[in-house]
Design goal:
Structural class: mainly alpha
Order of helices and strands: HHHHHHHHHHHEEEEHHHHHHHHHHH
Radius of gyration: 22 Å
Strand content: under 5%
Strand order of the largest sheet: 2-1-4-3
Number of helices: 22
Number of strands: 4
Shape: globular
Largest sheet: 4 strands, mixed
Distance between the termini: 39 Å
Helix content: 55-70%
């Protein structure tokens, strides 16, 4: 058996083990890089770490997740969501789109996709149950909203893909990559809105149920019997002071093997019935489940931001300007903003550092280090030539799009992107297929399927559904996710690759 085949089998084995067992794929990738590199590629450990470890990307991941952990802890994200919901003036038809937009804004400015879904999904599902909106509609809109913003130049996905394109010396366009993902996810959002009952919300308003809420004792945003804190790892509480929220651990999160903590099969939490304002579970760092207090009632008056929250918003906007206009390093700018916020409120930094997405940093660092080993021993070139050998380059691009979509439905999109993009290099080298269009199609196909209940984002939505609804939500996500896996790669290929305009 050739060294190239052995190294690919090791890569496949890592994804399988991470899917079936709670073992972090980043750890396996580092070990694989050391073992495969030293035995098959003739590389020593020092060379692997010096040349293969993605230090710049690791700094980016740490910086932006630190900043958004602080924004979540001090209540800025909750304030922005409440502000956006109030802006629609009680129109129920707009609430799913508010959730879509908020999730997209978070990922566009650098939040990890699963982290954005974990922040917005409990709020969205709470509104769904309170105002009798189909929870599938709200969950799908949150996931595709997060993916819509996921390839902006300041995002995690965008950074990974653009770095891979640049390293392969391929022509690239961060703007087209972002717009491709945005419009494809927007289109799926429109379809979801129609098939999951969004049109029925057009004549309904939030005050239609005000009387019913009053009769029920003022019910909260989560349904009676909705999941409580039984599976929780942390509960967000709002202390006295400048509107800051703190995370109080109640249970250690479970170890996980995938992106943002879990690539295992769909979770089946066993929530405990509680009062109507019981917090809803969200995925916690490392793959556990955290409970998040529901947002304040809509009739509590206008949302008021504290000076600290306004400073946080200004810092996030400054991050966008510094990176997009002045082209400064996003990771270092994010750390600078986080340091300014920490100097204003030192206690916030301590809790935020604990919520940096360390599993994601480990995941990406390990996978990219192993990809370096594969590149050095010629495996990536060999695999790309094998795919190119199926026939025309345009067909090979379609095959890669389907491979990315299928694998990502069960595994980590973040881990898969740096693997599958280099495989397209031999296909694109001949110039038969436009590099920008092909990379965009493969990237879209690899991430748009994350609504599957076996993926991290889909699992978070499922975990936030009420106990009596979980079977219906699971089946709905399964059918919808399977449809996306079958249709989305083909559509991305037809629009971005076949016309040859990119």
């Amino acid at each position: 058996m050739s060294p190239e085949i052995i190294s690919i089998l090791v890569l496949v084995a890592m994804f399988v083990v991470a899917t079936l067992l709670p073992i972090h794929i980043g750890v396996m990738a580092f070990v694989a890089a050391f073992v495969v590199g030293s035995t098959l590629a003739g590389l020593d450990g020092e060379t692997i770490l010096e040349d293969g470890l993605p230090d710049e990307l690791a700094v980016t991941l740490i910086g932006i997740t630190l900043l958004f952990a602080m924004a979540q802890a001090n209540g800025t994200i909750d304030w922005l969501v409440r502000l956006a919901v109030r802006a629609v003036r009680g129109r129920l038809v707009a609430i799913p789109w508010v959730m879509f937009l908020m999730a997209g804004v978070l990922t566009a400015f650098g939040a990890v996709s699963a982290a954005a879904v974990a922040i917005i999904a409990p709020v969205a599902l709470g509104f769904a149950y309170r105002f009798k909106i189909n929870p599938l509609l709200m969950g799908v809109m949150v996931v595709h909203g997060a993916q819509a913003g996921g390839f902006s130049p300041t995002s995690i996905y965008g950074t990974i893909t653009n770095d891979a394109v640049q390293a392969a010396e391929l022509p690239g366009s961060p703007l087209i990559l972002f717009l491709s993902s945005f419009f494809f996810n927007l289109a799926i959002g429109v379809v979801s809105f129609v098939i999951f009952g969004g049109l029925s919300l057009m004549r309904r308003r939030t005050d239609d149920l005000a009387g019913a809420d009053a009769a029920d004792g003022g019910g909260g945003l989560s349904p009676a019997g909705a999941s409580g804190g039984g599976a929780g790892a942390a509960t967000l509480t709002r202390p006295a002071g400048p509107g800051a929220a703190t995370a109080t651990p109640t249970r250690s999160p479970e170890t996980s093997g995938s992106e943002e903590g879990s690539s295992s099969s769909s979770p089946t939490p066993s929530p405990t019935p509680g009062p109507s304002v019981s917090p809803a579970p969200v995925a916690a760092k490392g793959g556990g489940v955290a409970t998040k207090a529901p947002p304040e009632e809509e009739d509590e008056g206008p949302a008021k931001a504290t000076p600290y929250q306004l400073l946080t918003v200004l810092g996030i906007l400054g991050l966008g300007v510094a990176t997009l206009v002045y082209e400064l390093d996003i990771g270092l700018v994010a750390m600078t903003v986080a340091l300014v916020l920490a100097l204003v409120s030192p206690k916030q930094q301590k809790s935020a550092i604990q919520h940096i997405s360390w599993p994601v940093v480990l995941l990406i660092s390990g996978m990219l280090t192993y990809i370096y080993v594969l590149e050095e021993m010629g495996t990536i070139e060999w695999a790309g030539q094998a795919v190119a050998g199926v026939g025309a380059a345009v067909i090979a691009a379609l095959l890669l799009a389907y491979v990315g979509g299928f694998v990502s439905a069960f595994a980590s999109s973040t881990a898969l992107l740096p693997v599958i993009i280099p495989m397209a290099v031999p296909i694109l080298a001949g110039g038969e297929v436009g590099a920008i269009g092909a990379v965009s199609a493969i990237a879209v196909a690899t991430t748009i399927v994350d609504v599957s209940p076996f993926s991290t984002n889909g699992a978070i939505v499922l975990a936030n559904s009420s106990e009596e609804d979980q079977d219906r939500v699971y089946k709905g996500l399964l059918i919808f996710g399977a449809s996306v896996v079958v249709i989305a790669p083909l559509l991305a290929w037809l629009v971005l690759v076949v016309p040859g305009w990119l």
